[in-house]
Amino acid sequence: MSPAKKRARTYDSAKIRTAVLAQFALVRAAVAGLTDEQLGAPTRLGDWTVRELAAHCTMAVGAVARGLEMPEPQKHELPLLDWPFGTVTESAAIAEGTRELAASAPPADLFARTTARIEEALAAAPDTRLVPTRFGAMTLADFLVTRTVELVVHTDDLNDALPGLDVPCDRQALAACTRLLADALAVKAPGASTEVRIPPFAVVQCVEGPRHTRGTPPNVVETDPLTWIRLATGRAEWRAALDDAKVSASGERADLSKLLPLMG
Questions:
Q1: Higher pLDDT, 135 or 2
Q2: Using alpha carbons only, how large is the chain's radius of gyration in Å?
């Protein structure tokens, strides 16, 4: 991955830490009430069942604790805005690890173990501490922002697999996830001809072309946070979202179909 040229926005570290723990707790509580039949239900993630999806959530959050337990890398390698574009390179290894983890213990044990490890690990770790990840060393603060993406996206996957479960999204986690994926779009398609609005959390300028300076932008895309997240991660298709009025797009440069998804 080439380093992102766009400067990453600033996130409130205390709020991000709280958001990660809060969203993980919401998923843990929901999974705790599932029957064996529900845990065996299919998901939209290939051949993963709900059991494997739940295990993956513990793996994603547990990666923070595992990273903090390892020696600190000497060099910062991965800017936050490069992270979304690298996840597809490790998809096979992640899937294999998820299946092994799901088979190793009941979901309740995985969540309890992960909760204890992450709370202990975060208690003494500064934001600037470098953490090894699959994609390169990141600061702890940045890595925790990526965990909001993992948790919000997979909370939505869980709700899709089990209609009526309705696991809520922590507001701060949803905001951080939305903003990081919006900024990733601006990195992928630099420019200022198109304004992408995702109220109430993000507005970004992107796509090459005439720069907008005042008044109503000539090219505008607007959608809600969950629809944006689904588009950015391949859970929804651009044309279907337009047809369902989940997205409004006006202007000749407002078609984002060739830029999506951002993450595989």
A1: 135
A2: 19
